Every structure is written in structure tokens, then in C-alpha cells.
Amino acid sequence: MKRVFVYEYLSGGGLIPSAGDATVNDEAAAAELLPLGLSMRDALAQDLLQADGVMVSVAASARAPRVPGNAEPVRPRGGESPFDFVARQAALHDVAWVVAPETGGLLARMQQVIGAARWLGCSAQAIALTSGKRATLQHLAGQGVTTPLAFEHAPEVDRWVVKPDDGAGGVATRVHTWQDDALSDWDRRSTAGSPMAIEPWVDGEPLSVSMLCTAQGSEVLSVNRQNIAIDADGALSFEGVEVNAIALDSERGRALSRLAAQVAKGIPGLRGFVGIDVVWHPRCGPVLIEVNPRVTCAYVGLSAALGRNLAADLLREHAHG
Predict the structure, then answer these.
(1) What is the mean pLDDT of residues 122-133?
(2) Contact (Cβ atoms closer than 8 angstroms) between residue 3 and residue 41
(3) Rg of the Cα trace of the chain?
């Protein structure tokens, strides 16, 4: 019997560090991301509960007291930090599967306290690189991947985006119609102490690629359509994803599969479920926006869409090293 601990940071009692915008406090960021976190947590747990030979524990808290199905709820002790709680539970289980943003080094520290042997996910080195959006773009652009950096001096660019360099879920992301306004926003928020990224806004269809990465290679699971909204003040919000929206054997699917293979080769240590955010530019095709070294919202419903238990597949790959 394999014992698996599922921990989603917000429903497990954690708070998101400063999101790089004075108008977005810790509780506001948590409220925005909690429904997404719960949907991912529950999808993972439900898949695990259907796998053979698996006992599932799921972190619960006052913010989210219920856990899926017959999973065992486990809770932090009074005054116990998220990291101490996760380290304690990981030691009682064979595998720990964490859903947490990169913000403030959260995902990296979770990997550190759990240790590589029990950690189901990317290596510390891959997390460190992909936790910085600008560093990721520079790294992959140097390997021939098209990124927003290729548009920095393009005359057709008419909008610029400013976002936390280690953010998640579109929190504290703003789109500006003037570069000077974007630079001012970037300078103000960077001076306040939060690492910020500024880059050209790439026009096109927002998509994501879900893949399963192992030491032997990578497998593209699906191409998904993202729903992104921008309000009158330029604030961006993520409004869901349509999983498996584009066939892998279509022209776009093949191009995105080639891009995913480039990313997997270009970032050693990507493991488990990995998401790539992409914009399909009408002239340039796929433009990589960021790499998510963790489970993303596209996991929700993907096992059913593909007719396979992705959690069971990931556990088998973990067991094989």
C-alpha cells in the first residue's frame, strides 16, 4: 500500500505572500486563488482514490475543512507553520504531492522540506529557474524558443504587461496601453520590494500545454484554451480553462508539441505534471509566456477527457525514478 499525502497550500491553511500590488493583499490573493487550488486538490485526490494500492491523506484546515471521498483529512497543529506541517506529514507518507504557487519561493521551499525522495514533481533546479518568469524567458529564448522578448522592439506592440515575476493565476497582473505607464508601474512596484516582470503584450489566442515529464522524456497530454479577461483598468484575471480543446494531431497541436519538446529539453529536471502558457500569435505562431513547474488548473477534468488516470501514471513514473 502506497501512502500519498496531498497538500494544497491555501486549503491547507497557508497565505500567499505579497503579490506585488498594494491593492492586492494576502487575503485578497488567497480568496482569488482558493477556488482554483481546491479544484486541483480535489481532482488529484479523486484520481488517487481510484488508483489501486493507494492510501490518500489530504490536508484540511478551517478554510477548507472537508476533503474528497474517503481520503483521510490531516490538519496542522496549533501554531504549526505550513512548512513544519508538510515536513511532518511527508515523513509519515511515501509520496507527497504539493499544489502551491511559486510566489515568494513557496514551491521551492516545499520541495526542500519534503526532500527529493518523497517529492512528486520537478527538481529543485527546475523550480528555481521557472519560478522567475523573466529568467525563464531569457533562458528559453537563448535556445531558440519564441517568447515575448522577441517583440520588445516590434513596432506593432501597443500594450505592455506588468506582473509579479514569481506570480500565479494572474494575481496583480496589469496591462497598459502605454509603455511609459508600464515602466512607471514596474518601477513603483519593484521599489516596493516585490520582484516584477515587464514584457510586451502578445496578441493572439491564449492557450496552455499540459505535459507529463520523466527522466526518459516528455509526453504532451493536451492543448487547452485559456479564458483571460482584462477590465477597464487593465487588471487581468484568469477565468478558467477548456481542457483538451485542440487536437494533438492538428497543425496547432503538432506545433505546440514541438514547442513542449523544446521546453522539456531546455529545462532539465522538469518532472511530473508541467504546464506551459502560450499565446498563438496570428503571424508568429506559438509564443511561450511561462512555464509552470507544477499541477495547473488544466489537470481538472483531464483524466476523464483522456480516459486515463493521470495520478496513477504519475505515481508509476515517480516509483521508477
Answers:
(1) 97
(2) no
(3) 19
Residue corresponding to grid cell 513544519: 84
Reduced to 3 states (helix: H, G, I; strand: E, B; else coil), residue 105 is helix
What pTM was computed for the model? 0.94
Pairwise CA distance, residues 132 & 167, whole Å: 9
Measure the CA–CA gap between 287 and 284, rounded to whole angstroms: 7
Give the mean pLDDT of 104-127: 97
Q: Residue holding cell 521546453? A: 263
The confidence score (pLDDT) of residue 23 equals 45
Q: What integer pLDDT is reported at residue 20 of this predicted model?
A: 55
8 and 59 in contact (C-beta within 8 Å)? yes
Name residue, grid cell 518568469: 133
| One-letter amino acid for residue 103 of the chain | T
- With b for 16 or more beta-carbon neighbours within 10 A and e for fewer, the 30-69 pattern comes to bebbbebbbbbbbbbbbbbbebeebbbbbbbbeebeebbe
Contacts of 243 (CB under 8 A, 6+ apart): 210, 222, 224, 298, 300, 301, 302, 305
